[in-house]
Amino acid sequence: MKKLGIIAALPAEAKCFQINELSFEAPIEIEKNVFLCISGIGYKSCLNAAKKLVKLNVDGLISWGIAGAISDSIKSGDVIIARSVINHKNIYSTSYEWQKKIISHFKNSSYKIFDGNIVSTEKICASFEEKMKLFRKTKALAIDMESAGIAEVAMAGNLDFIIIRAIADNADSNIPEAVIKNIDNFGRINIGKFLVFCLFHPTQIYEIILLAKNYKKSLSTLTNISTELRKKKFFYFP
After folding, report:
1. Please, what is the average pLDDT of the chain?
2. Dihedral sign of CA atoms 119, 142, 166, 121 in order
3. Can you give the pLDDT at residue 108?
């Protein structure tokens, strides 16, 4: 029987699987032979999470969560099931048959599903200008900070690998500095510092409200598709 490992950077992304208990950094079995690990944000965090799942002898890995658009063709609430992930060193292809099974299943659904590429960076790409620069360089649709690290472990271990990401922020939006400076590695906001920052930078409030709205929309999409994927055993188990 195959085993599957899922990596989500944030607790909010993991909660889309509607599980009762969360464990930070330690994998938990959310159903028979399906393990979920909340890694924290970034390359090193997800690399370590992927290695922990490898120790459980998983056969496949899913990079799960939200991403930001860098192309105008993909919007908040849309889903990308990527063909490959690009970073500053390599291009890692996802498992073709697995990816195509999922895309085919959702073809006639109400969700907008894309199968382009994702860029994975080691720092937050916050501004419209940064996003446009990355798009021009790579022609990728979206950006995250975790998929390349997971792909690296998958390739080294000859494991199946896919990326499933819902889009939060659009390509033409900025991630407010108030958010970037006041969240921890698991996306938790320091409320006191956040409010003080907003007090002195009130022009960011509109961007914060827009980001929160789009973030909620992306999580709703993830929750809905996770229910369907679990019914179909993630299209992975024989």
Report:
1. 93
2. positive
3. 87
59 closest CA partner among 232, 228, 234, 230: 234
Whole-number Å distance between alpha carbons of 69 and 198: 25
CA 23 – CA 42 distance, rounded (Å): 18
Q: Using N-to-C axis directions, what is the helix angle for 43-54 and 147-156, rounded to 10°?
A: 30
- pLDDT tens, position by position, 6-44: 999 999 999 999 888 888 878 999 999 999 999 999 999
* Rounded-to-integer distance, Cα 20 and Cα 33, Å: 17
Cα separation of 194 and 121, whole Å? 25
Pick from 4-18, 42-56, 146-160, 174-188: least confident: 174-188
Per-residue model confidence (pLDDT) at position 125: 85
Residue with tokens 């021009």: 136
First to last CA, the chain: 8
Say which residues have a Cβ less than 8 Å from residue 42's Cβ, sequence separation at least 6.
9, 122, 145, 146, 149, 185
Cβ atoms within 10 Å, residue 93? 14
4-173+218-235 in CATH: which number? 3.40.50.1580
Backbone angles phi, psi at 17, to 5 degrees: -85, 0
Distances (CA, A) of 206 to 130, 173, 191, 210, 213: 20, 11, 17, 6, 11
The rounded distance, in Å, linking the Cα atoms of 82 and 67 is: 11
Q: What is the mean pLDDT of residues 43-70?
A: 97
> How many CA atoms within 13 Å lie on the side-chain side of 190?
11
